[in-house]
Design a protein that fits this description.
single chain; Rossmann fold; 2 domains; seven-stranded parallel sheet; five-stranded parallel sheet; globular; D-isomer_DH_NAD-bd; glyoxylate reductase (NADPH) activity; D-glycerate dehydrogenase; D-isomer_DH_CS1
Length: about 325
């Protein structure tokens, strides 16, 4: 049986798949496999090891009549046509939980960097612009004792709340269902979305990408935020109306934004966000620690091996797929 791997993965993980199966691996790590090549390679594939950035749509499934399992090295799976996979009885695995703490770390790093102009200050030194101490030079926003509003109180949201508690922050959250367990454990306060936006000094977007959350933060929502507020997004770019955000940043309707994700990735050097001084931009590195990425790759490979051996995979996106197999 054949496994198609859509990005270069660590050799030690690939060797586990090579032991019993034929593998094809696209040799690039930072460049996506050409779509036409993907369609060609999956023609005789039994398994697909993919990631958050590669498009696995209906055409891919149609081109792969032998496909038995898909596993993505990511928690999000909006790049995969789950409906098509389910209809064909193909289970799809993903990697939740293992990356929660790493993404929470990065989220808080992005919050601090944006609030305290860390990137701008480093560029200031590199440009040889530092001539001495100034009373209001590179002044930012207080983090300690401020109010944070978390949209999406899952594993990552919980991690961010724990870190915020260490900074003495008041913690509001908005979620599709109230999390009374976390309210008791962490002292977080449930809030409507509008109230959260109005009250928060930092609004942190951590919701999954769904039809309900698409452009959840748009012009109206941005207008509710304080002019001193900062928006952080480490979830999915589709959750924020990027055009509305750019306008709000240009007009200083909000103080700043820290973004690790974008509506279309990767962004290029001519993207309108690049020229703004009140943003910090990162290239989708929320889970990018060596330990976390290795654990994600290991779990993705394990899902592939389980799927090919007929076992029910551990972290399943679409349990209905097994019913479709009859």
């Amino acid at each position: 049986m054949k496994i198609v791997i859509t990005r270069r993965i660590p050799e030690i993980i690939k060797q586990k798949l090579d032991a019993n199966y034929t593998t094809y691996m696209w040799p690039e790590e930072n460049v996506p496999i050409p779509y036409e090549l993907l369609l060609e390679q999956v023609k005789d594939a039994d398994a697909l090891f993919t990631n958050v950035s590669d498009r696995i749509d209906k055409n891919v499934f149609q081109a792969a009549p032998n496909l038995k399992v898909v596993s993505t090295m990511a928690v999000g799976y909006d790049n995969i046509d789950i409906g098509e996979a389910t209809a064909r009885g193909i289970p799809v695995g993903h990697t939740p939980d293992v990356l929660s703490e790493a993404v929470a770390d990065l989220t808080f790093a992005l919050l601090l960097s944006t609030a305290r102009k860390v990137v701008e200050a480093m560029s200031f030194i590199k440009a040889d612009s530092w001539r001495g101490w100034g009373p209001m030079l590179l002044t930012g926003q207080n983090v300690y004792n401020s109010t944070i509003g978390i949209i999406g109180m899952g594993g990552i949201g919980k991690g961010v709340a724990k870190r915020a508690a260490g900074f003495g922050m008041r913690i509001l959250y908005h979620n599709r269902r109230r999390r009374e367990d976390m309210e008791q454990e962490l002292g977080v306060e449930y809030s409507s979305l509008d109230n959260l936006l109005q009250a928060s000094d930092f609004v942190v977007m951590l919701a999954p990408a769904t039809l309900e959350t698409r452009k959840m933060i748009g012009e109206r929502e941005l207008s509710l935020m304080k002019p001193t507020a900062i928006l952080i997004n480490t979830s999915r770019g589709s959750n924020i109306d990027e055009t509305a955000l750019i306008a709000a940043l240009k007009k200083r309707k909000i103080w700043g934004a820290g973004l690790d994700v974008f509506e279309v990735e990767p962004i290029r050097a001519d993207h309108p966000l690049i020229g703004l001084e009140n943003v910090v931009l990162l290239p989708h590195i929320g889970s990018a620690t060596v330990a976390t990425r290795m654990e994600m790759a290991e779990l993705t490979a394990r899902h592939i091996l389980m799927g090919l051996s007929g076992e029910r995979i551990r972290n399943l996106v679409n349990p209905e797929a097994y019913k479709m197999r009859g």
